[in-house]
Amino acid sequence: MTDQPDLTPDHLRADGEALLLAPDVVLTPDGPMDHYAVVVTGGTFLAVGPAERLERTYSHLTPVRLRGHILMPGFVDAHHHLTQTFGAALAFGEPSEIFRRLWVPLEGALDEEAVYVAAKLAALESLRGGFTTVAEAGTRAPVDVELVAAAARDVGIRCVLGLVCNDADSGADTATTLASAEKHLVRYCTEELIHPSLAVSVPEAATAHTLRDTARLAAAAGAVVQIHVNEHLAAVERSLVQHGLRPLEYLHEVGALGPQLLAAHATLLTPREVNLLADSGAAVSYNPVASAWKGNAVAPATTMAERGIRFGLGTDGTRGDAFRLAEAAEFAQRLAYGLATGDSSCGAGWTWLEHAGRGGADAVGLGARTGGIAAGAAADFLLVDVSGPEMRLSWDLPWELVRRGNRDQITAVFVGGRLRLWRGWPLDWDGPALVRRAAELSRDVLLRAPVTRVHPTSTEARHAQAEWSTAQ
């Protein structure tokens, strides 16, 4: 038996053989299970159960004992923009609807190499942060989305890959747009890691015909349509002026609201719109960090949970750190709703782990494939070291993971049964070289991209404040 003190990546590489992993705890859909083990083969979990039983049943396998570790599902990022990573820090201090001033110009300045490198950098950051799946909401860069797929594939992360189907103001022909959508859904339908999806930036970016037909095409293919919905007050008001309906109401009116919809943000919801989500079976990406950085409000996620509304947690490209995202999910609910109602639980910890994993997988259309530690599921999982001072004294593991867990505790990341990262870095390609190249390219891109920032850098803001104080 292999013990944790001598653990190396070689112990976790199957080379075509099955792996029998025996950590201290396995985080199953039923909760934490002490002295459990898993058998991994062919990219999936073959068996999950008490370690003693699995060691007897699979006596031909040498157990790898992972002392001080838990084995838990990989996190699912239900809303990302992989090709925006070069400008992620530009969002600091900016008012809402920054996509018009930052992301559209930035992505428009990306060439093929920049798209690939930006997406690969974002995918690496996501893996480092514990995400084994990301939902990419569609790039605006004028390139083939295969470059984004290739980046995700090369990193080894599972990716729900959106194809933007905007046809209202882009001059695109509706028939051509829908034909491209059909080809995209077929192009990646048999891939292991890339899962096709359709996307519309905001409801007003597509014609009613395209909104309705992308919903139909996605539903038939078992895919999702990703749309930013009810994120900013200005967008809600534009929809009211143009259609006499709020964005979510408009999607319902044109026949685009249903189980295939993945509504990003959904922060500004009336009680009627909450009912529409619940009745339609649509899913939401709850993006609490994005709300804090660049939004108007916080989505009512605890209400969604009580109403049975499907939702996952998304970063919106803010930072690829799953543990901090789960903490933000609880923290935002506490500040926005819990304090006002005296709700000291705000999801009781497990809610945010559930929706960061299995609930997120369901929201992005992969609920039958990933998101949990169970026989037959894809072996997308983390080995997390809980032997340190943050979590060694454990009384309530799910809540501790939400409030005290951090990405530095992640020893290994597996996607599709393969070891993808060891202590934060890939083993079969040069991660630091990618970071260096991204730093070089990002400078060139930002120099030529016509981005417009409202807020100065933090240093400039500090100097301005000092000058103002001196002048008083």
Automatic annotation (TrEMBL):
InterPro entries associated with the record: Amidohydro-rel, Metal-dep_hydrolase_composite, Metal_Hydrolase, MTA/SAH_deaminase
Positions of the Amidohydrolase-related domain: 70-419
Pfam families tied to this protein: Amidohydro_1
Key words of the record: Hydrolase
Gene3D superfamilies, per database record: Metal-dependent hydrolases, Urease, subunit C, domain 1
PANTHER family, per the entry: AMIDOHYDROLASE-RELATED DOMAIN-CONTAINING PROTEIN, AMINOHYDROLASE SSNA-RELATED
Record-given protein name: Amidohydrolase family protein
Source organism of this protein record: Streptomyces flavidovirens
